[in-house]
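Hi support team,

I've been running sequence recovery on a batch of backbones for a student project. Most finish fine, but this one hangs at about 90% for roughly twenty minutes before it completes. I'm not sure whether the input is malformed or the queue is just slow. I've pasted the structure tokens below so you can try to reproduce it. Let me know if you need the job ID as well.

Thanks,
M.K.
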């Protein structure tokens, strides 16, 4: 059921390999936030209390921006180097962006990636494709 899916969303997200460029996932995270009075969903640790975050995303050059970023640049570098495809890649880039707290929907630490799920549409990050800073 939808309530059960939203309740387990963070666990399901971590235990799968979702295509985070599919914006239907953004809709799920938005709905989860709306049902919890816009609180940031967290699995283990709370998101640091600052109002703005520098976030990083490793991806192939020219790829669409997904909703998953990291607070850790080394994690993003791993994804730029091919961690997501499990094959080394030479065309990877790191997308860097400054994101206000209000656009962070979730903070997930279960895979030690310091992952933040960002509402890329509201934050104006849908057009980033390779190393640009906002």
């Amino acid at each position: 059921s939808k309530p059960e899916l939203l309740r387990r969303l963070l666990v399901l997200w971590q235990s799968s390999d979702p295509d985070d460029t599919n914006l239907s996932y953004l809709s799920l995270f938005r709905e989860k936030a709306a049902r919890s009075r816009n609180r940031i969903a967290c699995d283990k640790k709370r998101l640091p209390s600052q109002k703005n975050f520098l976030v990083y995303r490793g991806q192939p050059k020219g790829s669409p921006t997904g909703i998953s970023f990291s607070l850790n640049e080394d994690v993003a570098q791993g994804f730029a180097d091919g961690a997501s495809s499990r094959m080394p890649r030479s065309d990877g880039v790191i997308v860097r962006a400054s994101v206000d707290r209000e656009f962070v929907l979730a903070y997930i630490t279960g895979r030690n990636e310091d992952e933040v799920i960002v509402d890329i549409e509201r934050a104006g990050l849908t057009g980033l494709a390779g190393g640009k800073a906002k």
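--
Follow-up from support: It reproduced on our side and the slowdown came from queue contention, not your input. Helices lie at 2-7, 9-14, 23-35, 73-80, 120-123. No action needed from you.
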